[in-house]
Amino acid sequence: MRNVQTLIVIASLLFTLSANAENNKASKVEPLPRDLEIQLALSALPPHLRDSATIYVLNPDKGFEVARKGTNEFHAFVARTGDDTFRGSWPFTEYRDDILYPVSFDKAGVTAQMRVIFDAAEMQAKGTPPGELKKIIQDRFNGGFYKAPERAGISYMLSPVFRGYINPEENDSVATLNIPHVMHYAPHVSNNDIGGGKPGGMDPFVIFHGPHGYTIQFLGLTERAAINKEYEEMLARLCKIKEAWCLPKPKGQ
Questions:
Q1: Residue boundaries of the structural domains of the chain
Q2: pTM of the prediction?
Q3: Phi/psi of residue 69, each to 5°?
């Protein structure tokens, strides 16, 4: 009888370890080639800031790590689970392997906006289930754990490719877009306050109303075309790795 009980305990332990291993594996994302990830991260910044910026790469087992220490107080990386994941009430049931957006923050954004994404990456690496992670981050937002930026500042997202949630306040729909843009921190500012336009247009508009709000300004067609041209090779590499990262073809093609 004692031998049977021992076998049951061992079997239960092995099952638990196996389940934990599977959950942890499911929480990981495949890393990009290091040189490609660094290039993609730097594409978020304007040219004059790239050489002196701090760059991070994602270690799926730990979270973000410094790849190069910079001197100009700008920080760039490629988010694979972004802060938009934690918006809205839709259920976050699995970590996607196709989310991809290069983003950069100035000094003010590092201790406010960037910290959310880095905390999420670290908890994901540790195997935190998606639904639990969303609740933790939302509770931190609601409880004031994540503070608003201490001053006005800027976040550049000038990369030619972005794949993320397109209406995270409402649902989990994602898309791959070519929308280089600049974001300014706008705590507790509404779209009406700035006379903003509709999302997707050329006029500035506000997203994420509240202490971590941003105003968004898209670059013009001429500037976008120049960025696409500069990063043709990078875009081709990404498209070859994952079809979801191929830029949508213009209408009529």
A1: 31-182+220-245
A2: 0.86
A3: -80, 130
